Hints:
Elements: E1 2-9, E2 16-25, H1 29-47, H2 56-61, H3 71-88, E3 92-98, H4 99-105, H5 118-134, E4 144-149, H6 152-163, E5 191-193, H7 199-218, H8 229-242, H9 247-250, H10 258-265
Parallel strand pairs: 1-4, 4-5
Antiparallel strand pairs: 1-2, 2-3
Helix pairs in contact: 1-3, 5-6, 7-8
Amino acid sequence: MKFCYIDESGTGDEPFAVMVGVIADSYRMRLTKEHWSKLINDIEKIIGKEIAEIHTRDFYAGNGAFRGMDGNQRKEIIELIFNWLQERKHPIVFVGVDKEKFHNEFKEDKRAVDISTLWRFMATHLALSMQKEYQKQKKNKGNFLMIFDNEEREEKRFTDLLLNSPDWTDSYYNRNEKKQEKFNQLIDVPHFVDSRDVGLIQLADFICYFLRRHMELCQGSQNEKYDGEAEIIANWFELINKSSLSKSATYPKKGRCECTELFYQYAPECIK
């Protein structure tokens, strides 16, 4: 069984939104938690103070617990976290949305009645991508559970959507109506937790920030905050991309059904 720890970024005034899931096999979770605690200890040694939670927006801006941190320390911590991710080999799944296009056009789509909010749009795409990817695994090895950072406004509506998913979503994972239940890899309703207590949701937040920043710089919607930022962020994006589920699960280049095309058309070009 797999746990998918999920967070999002860009639901405010930013031009792009992204949602990321960090996937862990259940049998590896105890060791992962131990290694995450060690990673936090290493970060605390670098900045010289205790941290309750990694909020990447504060970290990158040097706010809160990260106030007074210099550029070299920031770079060292970023590399430390990305190296940890590579060593642990946790797969990643991510989706993104061009918010201007979404807010201007999606409200006219008949499917908007089911997934009308930006958060629900991304969460549904993430769930469908995991269903498509993991239904290929035999003997229940692809069964998964989705664990989100707290989102009180969406919890009930999204839970209801997964329990009673609309028929138009079936084609995304080529559901066989006679032999396959809807979302048959999803073993329970989504769980919502406090990110302060769950390290891999903090990791998802970390990845979210750099994915969104890559979109902003790559699509030209924002300028660099320092010389060479675009190239540095692009290199980190490549690290994330190499750890991610195949594009055939999220943004297939060809053979897209109407459901897949819906999510594809609202994604920024640089992540397709």
